[in-house]
DNA sequence: AAAAAAATTGCCACCGCTGGCAACTTTTTT
DNA sequence: AAAAAAGTTGCCAGCGGTGGCAATTTTTTT
């Protein structure tokens, strides 16, 4: 367990002051070329790495980013983390993960404490926590950089990256309509989440362009889990007049529909078209594979992180200029097809 | 954005020295009851929270734990994170995630830098990185606490939590044999991972107890991804003499087998039994649902974290006493059944 | 009641680094 | 060539806590 070398060691050996070493580390412009090389050489020899705590204490920077979320889909979270870490690692930041409870009334305090305690340089907030306006306000007031991922534009460009779920759902509607479906059902997510209502409205709007309307009894609310998907699917498929196509708010529930259809002997896509939303790993694994909407989650995370680091490093104008909107795209696979049922057929 | 209060503010207002405030914060025993109350009152009024960086700098503790891994299955990672965070949050630690490349020759340096830079109090290492003996050695030498999750006992109880994959695979073998299968295939994971060889050996050993032996051509090596699972499954199922049962090293590959079997018109479980390993979300989502081995991942993470925090807090004997071995269990679902093929049938 | 022991509390240095400003060099201007 | 400007580098004071030890107060012992 060898003693860790400090900035003093580097300074002494390189024959310069530690202030100069500090400048080299931070890429200051005002360091002579020869001095820089000399110092860098010593740094490498000693395998010196600056102490993040000391650095943070002196400069009120921690090079720590936080990720705040509430019980997201594992696959979604993983995608986000990968995206964030990709940027972090190249820019020298580390990521601290922090689950919390969206519903809790101590949410705001919890998050602020988290940020203060670890002196985070900024936080990335995932849905649905990102939809909390009180939290957003508190973050804004706290003065530390933050970026929200969301399905709806919520505040200024600087603090958000949105995916246009509404448009994507509309595209799915168009696709369904063009396949000739008219008896269409929708399994929504919790209506208290904006992403759910966005998708539902987009879908309905898209269908209405084709003169198709979803009757109220064809809209069921799940909570984005496989289990509730099963419940909803059973309700929809055991009816006398069952739909010929079902659009679910996410892949988990769409997979559940597949499962129920199978157990009822309903053939997909011949007798029933099914589509999901997310395009997570599940979509391509199930049989038949799911037609779905691909959300560029990783890319959103990437943008969000870039944006945040820019705003940490005082490039607010630049941060506001990083693209803030991404467009999910339709991915057609095996679970959807032309409507083949005649009028009277069930 | 109000100024954050410091220990000095608390000390001044409470009319004591900051050393005393520090003692109160750290729960030192030698503080008079009345003094403590007085100080705590001020702390609450000011909503004072100690600066983690300053604390760390002075005491060489950061209350930060690291999680080191290389490209794990998203579902596995999520499970681990949940387990770790559960303990962390109750004990006042935060978690920093750090992906790295197991194959890279800079692995050790990368990990050590990570630990030093953020002054982590300890790290949890996931497979396959956890199998690197050089890394383990470096960690031991570095003196900072670490715990490895693995499928094989690798070092002293204090630093590891293992799941007995070998025994679990043997149990699957027993189950297969009792169903009457004799033409059995195995899709292994990369042979360079201990977990892969453990499972394979356990499976073979288990079968041999029933006089069943897997011929070499019935063992294929995938790399634990769905895609390679597809390749292996195709090879196995397009043969004239195809197996009546396939055991895959993980659920991803087992799901791939299901997919291929479906496309070839092979009925599962009537004509082919399929089983996986992990019991992740996928297993229950696919059709037919997968018989598999449930690994108590979350529990392992929990144990590992508990163990580590104990050893951070100097309770080495206690740490060594936390259970270090968990037993995965067989979960029977729909993808397996009695062997129904006669001798000549394919 | 004085001395010894124990319990509290305070002082000061220091953890490792960066910020501000001064000092020293080198280059450019006049 | 002297003066001004620009480019480098160093010194010192913190950032907000904790550790060691001394000082003070309280309790116990004789």
UniProtKB/TrEMBL annotation, chains A, B:
The keyword Transcription regulation applies. Keywords: DNA-binding, Transcription, Transcription regulation. It holds the Pfam family Peripla_BP_3. Residues 5-59 form the HTH lacI-type domain. The lineage of its organism: Bacteria, Pseudomonadati, Pseudomonadota, Gammaproteobacteria, Alteromonadales. InterPro entries: HTH_LacI, LacI/GalR-like_sensor, Lambda_DNA-bd_dom_sf, Peripla_BP_I. This is LacI family transcriptional regulator.
């Amino acid at each position: 367990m060898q003693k860790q070398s400090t900035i003093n060691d580097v300074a002494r050996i390189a024959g310069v002051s530690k202030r100069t070493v500090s400048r080299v580390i931070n890429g200051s412009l005002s360091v002579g070329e020869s001095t820089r090389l000399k110092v860098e050489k010593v740094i490498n020899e000693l395998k010196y790495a600056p102490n993040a705590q000391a650095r943070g204490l002196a400069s009120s920077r921690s090079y720590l980013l936080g990720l705040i979320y509430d019980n997201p889909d594992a696959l979604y979270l993983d995608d986000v983390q990968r995206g964030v870490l990709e940027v972090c690692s190249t820019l020298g930041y580390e990521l601290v993960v922090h689950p919390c409870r969206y519903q809790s009334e101590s949410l705001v305090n919890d998050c602020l404490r988290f940020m203060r305690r670890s002196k985070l340089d900024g936080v990335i907030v995932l849905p649905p926590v990102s939809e909390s306006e009180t939290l957003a306000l508190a973050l804004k007031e706290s003065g530390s950089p933050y970026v929200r991922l969301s399905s709806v534009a919520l505040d200024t460009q600087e603090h958000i990256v949105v995916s246009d779920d509404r448009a994507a759902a509309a595209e799915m509607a168009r696709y369904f309509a063009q396949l000739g479906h008219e008896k269409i059902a929708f399994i929504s997510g919790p209506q208290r989440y904006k992403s759910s209502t966005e998708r539902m409205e987009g879908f309905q709007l898209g269908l209405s362009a084709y003169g198709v309307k979803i009757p109220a009894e064809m809209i069921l609310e799940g909570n984005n889990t496989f289990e509730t998907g099963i419940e909803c699917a059973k309700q929809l498929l055991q009816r006398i007049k069952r739909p010929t196509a079902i659009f679910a708010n996410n892949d988990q529930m769409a997979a559940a529909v597949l499962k129920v259809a199978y157990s009822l002997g309903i053939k997909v896509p011949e007798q029933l078209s099914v589509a999901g939303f997310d395009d997570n790993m599940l979509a391509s694994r199930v049989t038949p594979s799911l037609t779905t909407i691909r959300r560029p989650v990783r890319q959103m995370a990437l943008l969000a992180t870039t944006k945040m680091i820019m705003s940490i490093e005082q490039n607010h104008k630049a941060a506001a200029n990083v693209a803030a909107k991404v467009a999910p795209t339709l991915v057609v696979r095996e679970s959807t097809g032309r409507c083949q049922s005649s009028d009277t057929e069930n």
